[in-house]
Amino acid sequence: MCDIFSMQLILLIFMNKENNITFDMKGRLLLTIATVGLLSGCSKASSVMNDEIKDYKVEKFADLQILRYNVPGFAELPIQQKKLVYYLTQAALSGRDILFDQNGKYNLRIRRALEAIYTNPNEDKGSENFKALELYLKRVWFSSGIHHHYGMDKFLPTFTEVYFKEALGRVETKLPLAKGQTVDEFYNELRPVMFDPTVMPKRVNQAHGDDLVLTSAANYYSGVTEKEAEDFYNKMRDPNDKAPISYGMNSRLVKENGAIVEKVWKIGGLYSEALTPVVYWLNQAATVTENETQKAVIEKLITFYETGNLRDFNAYCIQWVKDLDSNVDFVNGFTESYGDPLGMKASWESLVNFKDMEATKRTDIISSNAQWFEDHSPADDRFKKKNVKGVSAKVITAAILAGDLYPATAIGINLPNANWIRSEYGSKSVTIGNITDAYNKAAHGNGLNEEFVYSPVELELIDKYADYTDELHTDLHECLGHASGIVMPGAEDALKAYGSTIEEARADLFGLYYLGDHKLVELGLLPNDDAYKAAYYTYLMNGLMTQLNRIELGNIVEEAHMRNRQLIAKWVYEKGLKDNVVELRKKDGKTYVVVNDYKKLRTWFGDLLAEIQRIRSLGDYEGAKNIVETYAVNIDQDLHKEVLKRFEALNLAPYKGFVNPVYTAHKNSNGEIVDVTVSYTEGYAEQMMRYSNDYSFLPSINN
Prior knowledge:
Blueprint: H1 4-19, H2 23-36, E1 57-61, E2 64-68, H3 79-94, H4 96-103, H5 107-118, H6 128-143, H7 161-169, H8 183-195, E3 221-222, H9 226-236, E4 251-256, E5 259-264, H10 272-286, H11 292-307, H12 310-322, E6 328-336, E7 347-355, H13 357-368, H14 370-375, E8 391-403, E9 412-415, H15 419-425, E10 427-432, H16 433-443, H17 448-452, H18 456-481, H19 499-515, H20 519-522, H21 532-544, H22 560-575, E11 582-587, E12 590-595, H23 598-618, H24 621-631, H25 637-650, E13 655-659, E14 662-667, E15 673-679, H26 684-694
Parallel strand pairs: 2-13, 3-4, 8-10
Antiparallel strand pairs: 1-2, 4-5, 6-7, 7-8, 9-10, 11-12, 14-15
Helix pairs in contact: 1-2, 3-10, 5-6, 7-8, 10-11, 11-12, 13-18, 18-19, 18-21, 19-22, 19-23, 21-22, 22-23, 22-24
């Protein structure tokens, strides 16, 4: 049996000396370590637990479906790589609270208050109010806050205000009260935030003409206007800087005593309480790296967290791009800017993964031909890379999802985001194979295609080719689309709020254009010259119709990826009206997409790609605004009503997310990890409560 008390004491002393962690933090971190099994898992190594997932579906509520994903190949990893995955997983989960706080200043207080009521043994679990509170809490967990994770609108509780106030009184000692605050004052503070639809109605507002900063509830700015924020960062930028930094990426911009200042996210700064355990686990990972390059990646990331200096972040990104030989890889930190209405500040996310060696053969073919694709792009030659550098791509197996990639996740990623690093050093692209596989298995036989696909001809194409062509489109989007083209000096952030939509459209169009190229058949990536039609049809069906199921009737399209898809679909539809390339045809009173000329459709994809690349390369803000506002925003209300009605009959959740597998470290009598096993039995609420208990490092109120 292990001497757990001695191990805890040694760790406590070590952490106090080396990391300057407060006693409260040490206590919580020790509890976390004990809970997840580092200190208490002194049993013998065991074989893989529940190695095969029998049912990918966990539960369904509101407009959400929770799934599981398998982690094939983990059991076969050598012990050093298993330990590396385990440590990186702990680093990923330790940053959980950051995203909640970034998404809204009240989110942590609301989540912790709801959890206190949810776990109160004296609550009447059978009451309608409690059931409504449970549903609301599940939605808060999923969205990392009180606004919809995709639609950005605030969702309202269906339990009563009276019930909430009374339930708070029953858990007073467990509430995240401010110093000297009473329960009544706490309730009065949260009531309008939760129940009033006019207070903080949108997490990210993209409506043209509004002050996007003042009308967005995201917690990236405080007391500043959109113009003040833009002026603040415009003064910092040096158009002659050959290695520009992503100004504002890792900070909150606030006005204090009339002056605008940045509060940087770093150890010793904002979010220090969560970044400290993140760095602790990264240090553990650095002891079991596969090679010196991988170790240097982790060390440079730690340096960035310690300094908050964005030049250190650039150094980390460059080192990360160079690490092409490691089997295990990860993303950890402030990454994507979709949650900032101005597209500058980055949300917390993490992904731990390892290579799918067999599937990566596909992406190897793509990346090795990157120069050919760049040279043959329909974009103006001025905007093409003359010498494509460092484009690497792989299919990965996700081991853990965290932050802005959890529970809902992307199926492909291309990083780093800085265009100058892409041009000088290259980029890394991934397609997440086991996530795509889980989506496909869960969607089998759901009736969507039978309802919305026009005829047996298209259905046969989709049945034969769609799963594969969709994966290939993701590969092309991430590997080549985001990595293609050049951005002229000074144009990096010129598109402002429209930048994310334009960038996603550019990558999607690159993939769509080349899916229809015979070159993919020559490379053995497609079986014939008809397979691409499955991807073209499903893309237009989604962009013109089925994605509308994700939007409430009467609303506009606001999320960047949805705007991108509608922009592309509507643009080619309208351009092709004269020649009847694509039409919306009625049959039995229902609307369907019909593609009459796939080759001409590809030509239109190419023309739009050339225009989008021009806008991106030159930083043409007016061009971006005009094309987005014209094609990507507004919705035909009659068509929207029809789509919603048809989906209602299918009873399908429009959004999906995942529970993570659970990793358990097994140690011998000497305290050495001898195996790490994975299991898939944890439920959604069970996992969320465990994460809240084990990884709640931030205070409820961040000043």
